[in-house]
Amino acid sequence: MDQGNRNVATGPAATRGRFRWIVALLVALGIIIGIVGAAATTWMVNATSSENFCATACHSMQWAAAAYTRAPHYANPHGVRASCADCHIPFESRPATPFQFIFGTIWTKQVDGTHDAIAELRGTISTEEKWEARRPQLAADVEAWFRKTNYDTCKGCHRLDAGTGPAVEIHASLVKAGPVDCVQCHADVGHKFEEAAQPAADAGQSGKGP
Question: CB of 94 within 8 A of CB of 104?
Answer without folding.
Answer: no
